[in-house]
Amino acid sequence: MKKPKTETCLTILTVVVIFAAWFLATGSGNVSKLFIPAPADVWKSFLDVLSDGYKGHTLLDHLGTSMQRLVIAYLLCVVTAVPIGLLSGYNSKVRALLEPIIEFYRPLPPLAYYTILVLWLGIDEESKLALLYLAGFAPIYIACVAGVVRIREDYINGALTLGANKRQIFFYVIFPAALTDVFTGLRTALGVEYTTLVAAEMVAATAGVGWMVLDASNYLRSDVVFMGVIIMGITGIILDKLIQLIEKHIIHWKGRN
User: Fold this and answer.
1) For 37-250, CATH number?
2) Cβ neighbours for 250, distance < 8 A, ≥ 6 positions apart
C-alpha cells in the first residue's frame, strides 16, 4: 500500500528535526565531541574511511564482510526455520519436540552462548555464523508456528469437504494463509541478526562494520562509531525494504478487501 502524502511528510519532518537537533547540540559547544561528534566530523570520517580505510580494510571491505556473514546466516535461517516452523504448526507432535529447545535458548543473550559456540566451532567464521543463525532462527520459527496455528478451522474443513488431501491442504490452504506471519518473522529475524552482528564480530575479527564500531569505541573515536552506526542503520533499512518488496510481490492480495 502506498504511503499517504501526509505520512511521507511526517517521516521527512522527523528526519529533519533529528538532524537539526544534532546540528544545534554540537554547534552550541555545550556538548563534548567525545559524546556527540559534529555531523561534519562524522562526514569527514566517512570520507576518510571510504578512501583510506580503517585498520587495513576499506569501508566496502568492512561492509562486505558484515553483509556476507549476515546474508549467509539469514539464508540458512530461511531455508530451515520456515519449513520446520510450518511443520511444527501443522503437527503438534513435532512442535512438542522442538519447542523446549527453542524456548530455552530464545531469551538468552547472544553472548551467553557465544562462548560455548567458540569452544565447539573455534574463533573463525563458523562460530560467528552459528551465532547469527541461532539469533535469527527463533523469530522465524515462532512466527511460522503462530501463522499456522491461528488459521481458522473452517478453511481446512472446507478444503476437506471439497476432497483435498493433507498435502493439498498444506500447500494450498495453510501455506498461503500463513505467509503474512512468515514475512513478519523474516523481518523480525533480520533485525535480531543485525543487532547480534556486533557480538558476532567481537571475537577474533579483523573486519566488519560491527568490529569497526567496537574497535573505534576502544580508542574513543566517536566520529567513527557514529559513522558506523549510521551505515548499519541505513543498510538495515535497505534490507528491510527489500524484504517488504518481496512480500508485496508474493502476497499480492495483502491489504485488499
Assistant:
1) 1.10.3720.10
2) 179, 183
